[in-house]
Amino acid sequence: MGCSSSRDENGEVVSFERSEPLLDFKCKGFEHGGVQVAQCAVQGWRKTMEDVALVQFGVPPREDTLALGVFDGHSGGDAAQFAQEELIGHIKETDEWRRGDVSTGCINGFMAVDVSMRKCGVQSGTTAVLALIGPEDIVVANCGDSRSVLRWETDAGR
């Protein structure tokens, strides 16, 4: 697991504000097995993008599970990037995930990421929301003030 911080090469805390908002929307689309996903982000007032998204089709050993996440960085993007890169791995390592208890696996995975961030000295923070969408169920987990909205549409309509 990699570690990073929100400091410049001299060890000084990086300033995060811009004089004007950057309103250039960055959008991507994904499709896998008939499932379509869109992801959009805007930088806003921050000097750097602090938010990170996760779109992962297949979460071993559940290849039919879609993972969607948003990590809202605070005081830099290091924690958001760290969580995006590490959360699924920590969830998959839990005994609960292996036994099929997805909800408890998520809770313990979130806690493990927090411990890893502290061990690595990550100075910034992040909120997070993660949805694991399987053929039989949807599990949504969040940390901090991040929330999610689900829109479901079939051939019969919404």
Automatic annotation (TrEMBL):
Domain PPM-type phosphatase intervals: 36-158
InterPro entries: PP2C, PPM-type-like_dom_sf, PPM-type_phosphatase-like_dom
Single GO MF descriptor: protein serine/threonine phosphatase activity
Domain of life: Eukaryota
One Pfam family recorded for the sequence: PP2C
UniProt xrefs under PANTHER family: PROTEIN PHOSPHATASE
Protein name: Protein phosphatase 2C-like
Species for this entry: Ectocarpus siliculosus (Brown alga)
